[in-house]
Design goal:
It is a single chain. With 287 residues, the protein is mainly alpha-helical. It has one domain. Helix content is 64%, strand content 5%. A two-stranded antiparallel ribbon has the order 1-2. A hairpin with a 2-residue loop joins strand 1 and strand 2. Helix 1 packs antiparallel against helix 5, helix 2 runs antiparallel to helix 4 and helix 7 runs antiparallel to helix 8. 36% of the residues are buried.
């Protein structure tokens, strides 16, 4: 049986210039934002937004969503640790390195609210906005998950019989920033999530070129994201993720099931059902 091979790329610091540390996670997250901004310039037109103003709106919404996600998640972190930060103000410089499932959920919620607010303010069709941003967000998620792999956050469960697919971490910064156990073979679940998100981005992007209704790309994205979330959580360590029902499922998995259900509802052709219902009612009235 082959022993797990720790990859040299799995390092929380991308590079260092003097006392300045450039974290791998931050670099990958920034790359994801840039890739999402570029892709959104294409999907804005394919999703049915205005050919001229649509790309500009997509750019603004993504920037606003990123800012809102950062602010809401960091404010929550400060509120949760306010008493400690009062005693140690310098710790404020380190809060950008802290990652937690609750912070991620709050940040995502803040980003969604920001996008919704902007779309209403600019009087943009919500389904077209969702179709426009679905593939770019999936692409950004793929880059973000690559960052978590390098940093060690969102790490996988330990593997009893480790194979060559297992990963181990040995850097003390990885343990300090994310709590990942050192020297333990783990499932590379972040890599699974990154590959899945990338494939989902390709699938959703391709759906924009097919004959469709507004909102179909979003429905596909929600189903894919929910299924990916539910599946990857099987291999992810559940520490801090809210295990329920005798550790048989965690909160992110329930969220994944909700996303699948929501995506399925979006893909249902309610208009055709309504038309069929009206036709049936007319036949009954004629009789």
């Amino acid at each position: 049986m082959r022993s797990p091979v720790p990859l040299f790329l799995m390092h929380p610091v991308l590079f260092q210039i003097g006392s300045l540390l450039v974290p791998s996670y931050g670099a990958c997250a920034a790359l994801g934002v840039l890739l999402a901004l570029g892709l959104a310039q294409i999907t804005a037109r394919r999703a049915g937004l205005d050919p001229v103003a649509g790309p500009r709106h997509a750019w603004n919404m993504l920037i606003l969503a990123v800012f809102a996600a950062l602010v809401t998640s960091r404010l929550l972190l400060v509120a949760m640790n306010f008493s400690d930060l009062r005693l140690h103000p310098r710790w404020l410089l380190a809060i950008a390195m802290v990652h937690h499932p609750l912070l991620a959920a709050v940040g995502i919620a803040g980003g969604i609210v920001a996008i919704f607010w902007y779309a209403r303010w600019a009087t943009l069709p919500l389904r077209a906005v969702a179709d426009c941003l679905a593939a770019p967000i999936a692409l950004a998620a793929a880059a973000e998950q690559l960052g978590t792999l390098l940093e060690g956050s969102g790490y996988g469960r330990g593997i009893a019989s480790a194979g060559s697919w297992a990963v181990t971490y040995s850097n003390q910064l990885a343990a300090r920033w994310s709590g990942v156990p050192l020297g333990v073979p783990l499932y590379p679940v972040q890599a699974y999530a990154a590959i899945g998100a990338l494939l989902l981005a390709v699938l959703v992007y391709g759906s924009l070129f097919m004959r469709r209704r507004s909102g179909d790309a979003t429905g596909i994205a929600l189903i894919g994201a929910g299924a990916l979330l539910f599946t990857t959580e099987i291999y992810r360590d559940w520490e801090g993720r809210g295990a329920l029902f005798g550790n048989s499922v965690d909160i992110p998995q329930l969220i994944g099931l909700g996303l699948v259900l929501l995506g399925g509802l979006m893909l249902l052709d309610w208009r055709n059902k309504s038309t069929a219902g009206n036709a049936m009612a007319e036949k009954v009235s004629d009789v």
